Amino acid sequence: MAAVDVRELATHNSRDSCWLAINGIVWDVTAFVSEHPGGANLILKVAGKDATEQYETFHSPELVEETLGLDARKGIIDSASIPPVDKQSELKRQERTSPLLSSMVSVNDFEGVAEKTMTPAAWAYVSSGADDEISTRENGRIYQKVFLRGRVLRKVGSVDCSTEILGCKSALPIYTSPVGLAKLVHPSGECAIAAADGKEGIIQVVNTVSSMPIEAIMDARVSKDQTIFWQLYADKDLQKSETFIEEDLETTVDTPQGVGIAKANTGFINADIEWATIEWLRGVTKLPLVIKGVQSVEDAVMAFDHGIDGIVLSNHGGRSQDTAQPPLLTLLEINHYAPHILDKHMQVFVDGGIRRGTDIIKALALGATAVGIGRPVLYSMSGGYGEYGVRRMIQILRNELQTNMAFIGAKNVREIARGMVNTRRLEKLMIGSVRL
Ligand code: HEM
Ligand SMILES: Cc1cc2nc3c(=O)[nH]c(=O)nc-3n(C[C@H](O)[C@H](O)[C@H](O)COP(=O)(O)O)c2cc1C
């Protein structure tokens, strides 16, 4: 490849002619600028420059080639002439300014560290919700409106929190939800989560647009038997998704897997997913299928009738549509209008605002198999804590869950029963009638 002079690169700094250097290679992105799913401005800010640091904050190394193709390469640049960013010393600075991990005693403690140590852009990206952030707030608040009804004199002895999620063993009825761009928070990104989850015996859900390559995440597992679930954002070109599932998911990835499917609106993502797409997916893979983002009892019943293996009641942490109802309320709807779908072939998962062991008990009492933890995963790896922070966060939840299961009179997760929660204050918030 031809050598490109840094001064020449600098002249291609506009929408009309836009070049970037990434890891020493110069790319012509002129045709791509206005199609960039992250927005044209992000690219234009680094036009004519070495964009490696900004690019790597959001993307895996191979994405540029996959997206633009080799023809978009203009040549090689001597990236040694560009002063490197010392990521290790930045991490050391964060470690020095963060409190001792042992002083973190509740999941919410990590949020305070994250706010102080994350860059303003990362903090805004992770902590924010859509519009007025009403759903983000209400997701958590709703758990405070449910009261526990413990049973006494039940000889609980030692409490066993383990369960099975889609046929895979999990030490706790929790999993880490897919959270994009973990690398924004810690250089090990999703690899730190994989290692922490493996050591604590829980399952990680990884999304299509993870910030670390899937191979690196798989290598970060503690053993080949560690389960990872994969979330698929179906491509506009369904054939691409089919090839991905057949070639990458079922062959490269060699442990028991789940596939999740989510609907969203950015660039390459297929926003036309319908129930027929689910039938297509069922034909493409024998892996368990989970639909994430179910927000009504009507759709929960549709999923059940389509033979889906699991649903995640979720409004994506209030990040998509503001004022979407809290997932716990959707779970209550299912209890009220369609209890026949609980405890059958389809498992129900819930996420959004879960921060306490008692929150987990409340969701399980209403029929959830397990709950997803989103933002706390990223908060707990901030401040330079990485894998150790995520482990501490999981351990805090485990301790709270064990203690509260003993209080409530349940020695294992199957003994957490509907009668152990009083949901009276929520019932007036629930929709008055539905047509199923
Ligand atoms: C030529 C270089 C680039 C290519 C080919 C590219 C490609 C893409 C693609 C395909 C997506 C969709 C999601 C994904 O697959 O990750 C995306 C999203 C995004 N990109 Fe880039 N990108 C480039 C450079 C950059 C740069 C330099 C930045 C930041 C300064 C950036 C920031 C983002 C952000 C913030 C998103 C949205 C992520 C989300 O909402 O989940 N990209 N980009
Ligand atoms: C930074 C960030 C990125 C996320 N990215 C995705 C994603 O790519 N796909 C998805 O289905 N959900 C995504 N979510 C939503 C989470 O999977 C989860 O549903 C939500 O965060 C749960 O709420 P909580 O953060 O209150 O625990 C993201 C959440 C955050 C905070």
UniProtKB/TrEMBL annotation:
Its cofactor is FMN. Belongs to the cytochrome b5 family. It comes from the Eukaryota. Keywords: Heme, Iron, Metal-binding, Oxidoreductase. Residues 1-78 form the Cytochrome b5 heme-binding domain. InterPro entries: Aldolase_TIM, Cyt_B5-like_heme/steroid-bd, Cyt_B5-like_heme/steroid_sf, Cyt_B5_heme-BS, FMN-dep_DH, FMN_HAD. Signal peptide: none annotated. It holds the Pfam family Cyt-b5. GO terms for molecular function: heme binding; metal ion binding; oxidoreductase activity. Residues 99-426 form the FMN hydroxy acid dehydrogenase domain. It comes from Oleoguttula mirabilis. This is Uncharacterized protein.
